[in-house]
């Protein structure tokens, strides 16, 4: 990561001397900075590194991942939103930065729909409803029945206030008509620990995080929150099949650049990213991280993001989460 | 009276109490909540009061103690130049690059100790700038500008 | 016996291949380097190297990444002992007596003891990883929010024991540390606290600027002011521990290893708590506790063995459960996943070569580190012969670069400057910074778990005494607190009523 940020700086100096018309044609002629607004580790960060690795080959310039965590991704996304729109700075936007945070944070430092332009969606990580070893329910309906019978005995954990897991849990509580206590943790690992030790009873976790535990038989998977079943856990029904329709919450992420990047540069970046997502080795790496690769066009991705932004207004309100 | 105030214990107590009071004042803006659902202000307010009480107790005990130590003699000059050196580094790093920032930091911070020999300071600044550039930028590849852009 | 022997043999056959030895050495060397330099830690280094490991064999990749992690633990203690600059949170404790030993001209002995204690602890902890992982996981699973809160409470009392001066001031420093730790975004509600609208503070005050300001800068200012005759440091005597020093170190290392191995398994700062707990234990057990803080050998040996043991056993939750206890382990899990290895309990049976190879390489790596570090002791100590007027600008410059490089942020350099002033004031007012740092680290975790436990119990504070481990820890904390407070309360009363 650090190695080539030095090159970025050297190249900034060189690029300043170039006339701007020649710029687009020769794009990229220096390293590209790829901001991941979350801490290192985790499937989003590792996916970014896998894609950046492939894009480096395709663009013949280093694509350098830089972690700028903080405020649910807002710190890193804001940094990119306010960078020069020259295509040399990209950010890994996600469900949180583009659909949830605008409704969650009292003050947003930037407008994700206006200040950032979509390139392509990298992938989707399905969420999965899992219950801990102390829970007897073997399907969603039994779980709902048990919770209704004794709501005080149930807590659900999540990776933090306003995280995908929190929102899914709040939506679930709303659908079954019982308020359930939400316990936030600092990220995915501690909330999974809490589920295993019986501190919480169920959680909506992302599949990458939960899969090893499901496979080891330590937790029971009740349903996936995507419209289709997932090939990694083919026996687990969807929420709709389990009797709770319209429950589509998955953690998606994709590349954005500052608004105002010239169209030909957007195309160049999108082509490279989409090609990277067709590369068999990269696809396999993503699959191992439980990421379903997408690779749509900038226009398609833009419509998707706008729809998600609208959808989460209501879900965030339901959850009662707020950050100010 | 002034002698008693000017004691390490008394001043330390007052310093703690001041920090505690500042915490209470700032935390007043945060929701307090209830013991079940503690708000963001609950813990800082509690700690703030604790610090005020501790600070007051330390100050009072220091004030009335018979044989407390007076404040040790201080010479602010070394600290001042050290801080100016760090400030010079921070100011110059992104404008003038690592080499200039290190050289300036050494030249200023070195004023904190006598004797100040020009040739030695120049050699030291140059040597450290070269070492810093080699280890951090060339070796570890940290994204720090070496020279002014 | 062959159940243990055969897998270990398999492990060594993997770890001792030339390629894997090379990755192990590379990782250990890189780790030592980033450990010695302030600021740059293993997380940034491992993240940077992750894509390179895509092309490697999974075993070699993991061996190298693990080497960086424990190598950094060795390197971190060097600057703590030589110049009172804690490069990582766990070396704060080493600063206390390690630097004091250096001042007495025993820097070589302190460095040698730190390296040997780390090696011994690493060896034992590696064995524990090999044989006791499942049992250790069961133990870690007993810890919920209430237990964590009580453990933190115990840690805070330990913070007070760290100080060798006034107990009241040590408590006040701890509380101040707790308050500083709360700066940033609140986990439970998302409110920004004590940030003054500065975005750089939204994730809290960094540990490195705080520690560099309070320890390194304040220390330089005080030394310059005193025109300290540094003869004692320069005349170094024997580089090796004397027989008496060795005799004092051995039991401390044994206890430190035990404490570190147990606490290291707990996620979130287990290794760090281990260093503090081991130091506290030694000070309570010592015949003459007043020597602590003035260069007690046990005060170096115990925390150094505890933090290295903790670093090794923190692999257990990752290897046995597939749940990372810290950011470094999260990256290791990412590296495993990329290679198609599902982390978790299946690794041991499905990928025995990888599991045992990694375990064996940890021991090999520790051996390499001690072999690398012992000859370096002589060179490090020679550094102290450099006249201080040449040495201190170097320390200052390395501090500045390290702090900046953390987040490429000039703001953090200014923050360091501010804490430097505060640290100088603390020295003048006779307040020791170590309890503040422990409070600073424990504060946010403690509040988080307190509020979580209260939510889980629906507001009933009895949760802290109904759960046996939590109750036991709280009881221990109270006993320790009384033991610490009793004599000084008496003194305080005598003083106050002496008028």
What does this structure look like?
Chain A has helices at 2-16, 20-25, 43-59, 74-81, 95-104, 112-115, 140-149, 164-176, 188-197, 207-215, 263-276, 280-288, 298-319; strands spanning 32-36, 63-67, 89-94, 116-131, 155-158, 181-184, 202-206, 220-224, 250-258, 292-293. Chain A has 324 residues and is of the alpha/beta class. Chain A has two domains: 2-125 and 251-319, D-Maltodextrin-Binding Protein, domain 2 (3-Layer(aba) Sandwich); 126-224, Periplasmic binding protein-like II (D-Maltodextrin-Binding Protein, domain 2, 3-Layer(aba) Sandwich), CATH 3.40.190. In chain A, strands 1, 2, 3, 4, 5, 6, 7, 8, 9 and 10 form a ten-stranded mixed β-sheet that branches. In chain A, helix 3 (43-59) crosses helix 11 (263-276), helix 5 packs across helix 13 and helix 8 (164-176) crosses helix 13. Mean pLDDT of chain A is 85; it is low at 1-6 and 8-24. Chain B has five helices and no strands. Chain C is mostly helical. Chain C has one domain (2-496). In chain C, 77% of the residues lie in helices and 1% in strands. Chain C has helices at 2-15, 18-36, 42-53, 58-83, 92-103, 107-141, 145-162, 167-182, 207-226, 231-234, 243-264, 270-285, 298-313, 315-321, 327-338, 346-350, 352-383, 388-407, 410-428, 433-456, 463-466, 468-496, and strands at residues 184-185, 192-193. In chain C, a hairpin with a 6-residue loop joins strand 1 (184-185) and strand 2. The termini of chain C are far apart. The chains are: A alpha/beta (324), B mainly alpha (149), C mainly alpha (499).
Shape of chain B: flat
The major sheet of chain B is characterized as: none
- Top-tier CATH class of the largest domain in chain A: Alpha Beta
Q: Class by helix and strand content of chain B? A: mainly alpha
Strand residue percentage of chain A? 15-25%
Q: What is the number of E strands of chain A?
A: 10
Estimate the strand proportion of chain B.
under 5%
How widely separated are the two ends of chain A?
A: 32 Å
Q: Roughly how many Å is the radius of gyration of chain B?
A: 24 Å
The CATH fourth-level homologous superfamily of the largest domain in chain A? Bordetella uptake gene, domain 1
Oligomeric grouping of the chains: heterotrimer
Mean pLDDT of chain A: 85
């Amino acid at each position: 990561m650090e190695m080539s940020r030095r090159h970025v700086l050297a190249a900034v100096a060189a690029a300043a001397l170039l006339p701007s018309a020649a710029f687009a044609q020769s794009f990229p002629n220096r390293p590209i900075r790829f901001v991941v607004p979350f801490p290192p580790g985790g499937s989003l960060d590792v996916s970014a590194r896998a894609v950046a690795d492939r894009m480096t080959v395709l663009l013949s310039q280093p694509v350098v991942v830089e972690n700028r965590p903080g405020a649910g991704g807002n710190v890193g996304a804001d940094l990119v939103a306010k960078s020069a729109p020259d295509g040399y700075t990209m950010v890994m936007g996600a469900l949180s930065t583009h659909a949830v945070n605008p409704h969650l944070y009292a003050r947003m430092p930037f407008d994700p729909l206006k200040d950032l332009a979509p390139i392509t969606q990298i992938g989707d990580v399905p969420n999965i409803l899992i219950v801990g070893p102390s829970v007897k329910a073997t399907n969603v309906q039994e779980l709902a029945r048990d919770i209704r019978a004794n709501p005080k005995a149930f807590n659900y954990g999540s990776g933090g206030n306003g995280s995908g897991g929190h929102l899914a849990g709040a939506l679930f509580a709303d659908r079954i008509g019982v308020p359930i206590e939400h316990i936030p943790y600092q990220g995915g690992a501690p909330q999974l620990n809490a589920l295993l030790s019986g501190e919480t009873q169920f959680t909506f976790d992302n599949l990458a995080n939960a899969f090893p535990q499901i496979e080891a038989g330590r937790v029971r998977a009740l349903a996936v929150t995507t419209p289709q079943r997932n090939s990694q856990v083919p026996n687990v029904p969807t929420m709709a099949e389990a009797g709770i329709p319209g429950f589509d919450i998955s953690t998606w992420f994709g590349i954005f650049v500052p608004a105002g990047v010239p169209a030909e540069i957007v195309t160049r970046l999108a082509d490279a990213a989409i090609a990277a997502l067709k590369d068999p080795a990269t696809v396999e790496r993503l699959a191992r991280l439980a990421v379903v690769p997408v690779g749509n066009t900038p226009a398609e991705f833009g419509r998707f993001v706008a729809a998600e932004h609208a959808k989460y207004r209501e879900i965030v309100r339901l959850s009662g989460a707020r950050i100010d | 009276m002034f002698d008693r105030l000017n004691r390490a214990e008394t001043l330390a107590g007052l310093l703690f109490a001041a920090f505690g009071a500042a915490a209470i004042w700032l935390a007043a803006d945060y929701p307090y909540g209830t013991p079940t659902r503690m708000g963001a202000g609950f813990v800082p307010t509690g700690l703030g009061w604790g610090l005020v009480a501790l600070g007051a107790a330390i100050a009072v005990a220091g004030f009335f103690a018979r044989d407390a130590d007076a404040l040790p003699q201080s010479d602010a000059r070394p600290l001042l130049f050290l801080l100016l050196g760090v400030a010079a580094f921070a100011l110059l790093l992104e404008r003038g690059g690592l080499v200039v920032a290190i050289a300036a930091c050494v030249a200023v911070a070195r004023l904190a100790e006598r004797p100040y020999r020009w040739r030695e300071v120049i050699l030291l600044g140059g040597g450290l700038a070269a070492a810093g550039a080699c280890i951090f930028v060339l070796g570890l590849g940290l994204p720090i500008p070496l020279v002014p852009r | 016996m062959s159940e243990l022997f055969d897998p270990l043999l398999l492990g060594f056959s993997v770890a001792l291949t030339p390629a894997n030895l090379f990755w192990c050495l590379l990782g250990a060397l890189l780790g030592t380097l980033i450990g010695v330099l302030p600021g740059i830690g293993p997380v940034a280094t491992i993240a940077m190297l992750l894509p390179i490991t895509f092309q490697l064999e999974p075993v070699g990749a993991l061996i190298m990444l693990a080497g960086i992690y424990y190598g950094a633990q060795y390197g971190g203690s060097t600057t703590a002992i030589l110049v009172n600059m804690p490069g990582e949170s766990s070396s704060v404790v080493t600063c206390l007596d390690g630097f004091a030993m250096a001042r007495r001209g025993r820097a070589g002995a302190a460095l040698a003891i730190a390296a040997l204690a780390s090696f011994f602890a690493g060896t034992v902890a590696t064995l524990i990883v090999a044989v006791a992982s499942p049992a250790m996981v069961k133990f870690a699973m007993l810890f919920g929010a209430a237990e964590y809160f009580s453990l933190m409470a115990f840690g805070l009392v330990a913070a007070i024991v760290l100080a060798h001066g006034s107990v009241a001031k040590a408590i006040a420093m701890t509380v101040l540390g707790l308050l500083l730790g709360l700066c940033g975004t609140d986990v439970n509600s998302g409110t920004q606290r004590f940030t003054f609208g500065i975005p750089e503070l939204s994730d809290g005050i960094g540990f490195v600027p705080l520690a560099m300001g309070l320890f390194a800068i304040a220390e330089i200012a005080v030394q310059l002011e005193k025109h300290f005759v540094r003869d004692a440091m320069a005349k170094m005597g024997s580089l090796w521990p004397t027989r008496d020093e060795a005799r004092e170190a051995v039991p401390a290392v044994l206890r430190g290893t035990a404490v570190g191995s147990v606490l290291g398994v707990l996620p979130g700062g287990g290794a760090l708590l281990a260093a503090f707990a081991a130091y506290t234990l030694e000070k309570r057990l010592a015949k003459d506790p007043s020597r602590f803080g003035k260069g007690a050998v046990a005060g170096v040996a115990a925390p150094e063995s505890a933090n290295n043991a903790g670093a090794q056993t923190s692999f257990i939750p990752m290897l046995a459960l597939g749940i990372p206890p810290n950011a470094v382990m999260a990256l290791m899990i990412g590296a495993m996943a990329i290679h198609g290895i599902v982390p978790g309990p299946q690794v041991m049976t499905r990928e025995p070569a990888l599991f045992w190879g990694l375990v064996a390489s940890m021991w090999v790596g520790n051996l390499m580190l001690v072999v690398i570090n012992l000859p370096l002791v002589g060179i490090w100590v020679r550094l102290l012969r450099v006249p201080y007027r040449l040495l201190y600008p170097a320390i200052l410059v390395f501090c500045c670069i390290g702090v900046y490089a953390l987040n490429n942020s000039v703001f953090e350099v200014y923050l360091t400057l501010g804490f430097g002033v505060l640290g100088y004031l603390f020295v003048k007012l006779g307040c020791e910074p170590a309890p503040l740092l422990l409070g600073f680290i424990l504060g946010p975790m403690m509040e988080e778990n307190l509020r979580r436990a209260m939510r889980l119990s629906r507001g009933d504070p009895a949760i802290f005494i109904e759960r046996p481990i939590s109750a036991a820890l709280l009881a221990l904390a109270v006993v320790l607190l009384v033991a610490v407070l009793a004599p000084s309360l008496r003194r305080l009363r005598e003083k106050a009523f002496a008028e």
